Amino acid sequence: GQQLNQSPQSMFIQEGEDVSMNCTSSSIFNTWLWYKQDPGEGPVLLIALYKAGELTSNGRLTAQFGITRKDSFLNISASIPSDVGIYFCAGQDSNYQLIWGAGTKLIIKP
Amino acid sequence: DTGVSQDPRHKITKRGQNVTFRCDPISEHNRLYWYRQTLGQGPEFLTYFQNEAQLEKSRLLSDRFSAERPKGSFSTLEIQRTEQGDSALYLCASSPNPSPDLNEQFFGPGTRLTVL
User: Fold this and answer.
1) How far is B17 from B79, CA to CA, in rounded Å?
2) Best exposed site among A12, A94, B8, B63 by fewest CB in 10 Å?
């Protein structure tokens, strides 16, 4: 079963707002990956983090690898309608296997 | 398009029938993974290949499931005697050989299986 705790489970945002989500684990991971999945599609890689403390940006997205190697967060600044979707964190263990969170669903308020 | 491709995108079958899915990874990616995803959950690991060798299988992969990657390129996942509980999105991913500084898996669009 899954070993990552991803929160929040869902978020209702207004266009232009900043968004923050995070993942925590009881285990240490060597890599954290953040993916976005649109309905009917496979996950698309957003950001990969390889070193504890690493802070990486990809456009309006910023993610950090926690110093304890047991957590990571993803921020989205100035959200736009196409940001809607489900965001997954995944931690890579020492065997290079990915352990996945349950996802954070991002919804735009009408 | 040089991404991961999967075929078919959708499959509807009756309980008890056999189904086979195909995955074509990104060229020269040594590793190929199969995952299963149900609604509201992240992908669950099923199995992976390093070239043509199947190196690990999850406990989720019952005897009814079999995967092959005969030439180290495309892979097939077969489910025999399908059950309603097999209904899910079956995802394939590929990656180059992983290292401490690089392990990014790239996913295909998935095959949506519905067992009636």
Assistant:
1) 8
2) B63
